[in-house]
Structure formats: structure tokens, C-alpha cells
Amino acid sequence: MIEQIYTFFTIEMLYMWINIGVLPFWFVLIFFPQSHICKLFVTSIFPFLLLGGSYIFVLYKSFSIGYDFGGNFNLYLGLNELSRLFEDDLYVMMFWTHFIAINLFLGGWIVKDSQKFSINKVLLSLPLIVIYLIGPVGLVIYWIIRIFYAKKINLYE
Q1: Domain residue limits, the chain
Q2: pTM higher than 0.90, yes or no?
């Protein structure tokens, strides 16, 4: 039974499940940001336990085939080294899980922060969609919206 589960969760299958599995969280963040479901499941630790578990699974698979984790530090040596790292499917999967988790965390933080300033959920949907697609640009859009609702600029809060 365990062997069947292990052979079922290939890197391609895990990639598909992570991409599909994160969509309900984003759906709730965008359409129901003030709901109890959002507070209980999306802006809590729950999605990060799931994503962390999949990240640990990828690390385990990498470790079991003898992946050179020390070679990951070569990414700081230049773009050629970074490109070389992205040739490995396991590294791409680690990167993608990391990217998905951070974007979801950022979306949850924005929903929590926007509730302090009573930002309209329709207006909030734009930066959330942009964060889902391209991360940091959505944060800049949210920051601009937040300035108008907070009526002040605060560089640290």
C-alpha cells in the first residue's frame, strides 16, 4: 500500500496537485475574504502545513536519489549556475512549492491587513489576483491602495 502511494506521487503528479490544490485557497481569499472559512482555513497555518508537507516530500525524494544540496549555493555565482539548477526537476519543484507558499502567505497577510482599514473586497481582489500570478507587483498595488485607505505612509508596521 505504501509503495503504491509512493509510486503515485511522482514529481509531475505533485506539481499538478499543488497547482490545483492551492486554487480553493485563492478562491476564498479573493471572493470571501471576511468569511469565517477564510479565517479558519486560509489565513491560518493549515495551507502551510500542506505545502510544507509536500516540500518535505520533495526533499525526501531528492535526498533518496542523492541530490547534491550543497550545489544549490552555486546559484549565487551567476545566471549560468542558476540556469543549471533549474535543469533539475526536483529543484524546480522545490522552487515552485516555495513560490506558491510565499504568495499564498502574502495573500493571507494582505487580507488580514486590509480588514484593519476596511478596504473594499472588490478593490482588494485586484492585488490578490496579481499576487497569485506575479507576486511582488501585487504587493506594490496593495500598498498603493492601502495608502489611500490608511491616509498615511508607514514604512514599517
Answers
A1: 2-150
A2: no
The string of pLDDT tens digits covering residues 74-105 is 777 888 887 887 888 888 898 999 999 999 99
Q: How far apart are CA 154 and CA 44, in angstroms?
A: 25
Whole-number Å distance between alpha carbons of 64 and 127:
40
Q: Which contacts (CB < 8 Å, 24+ apart) does range 85-88 have?
A: none
Distances (CA, A) of 116 to 50, 69, 128, 149: 28, 42, 17, 10
Distance CA 157, CA 38 (A): 23
Residue among 101, 20, 23, 88 at smallest CA distance from 55: 101
Polymer length in residues for the chain: 157
Instruction: Give the Cα-Cα-Cα angle 73, 78, 84 (nearest 5 degrees).
Output: 70
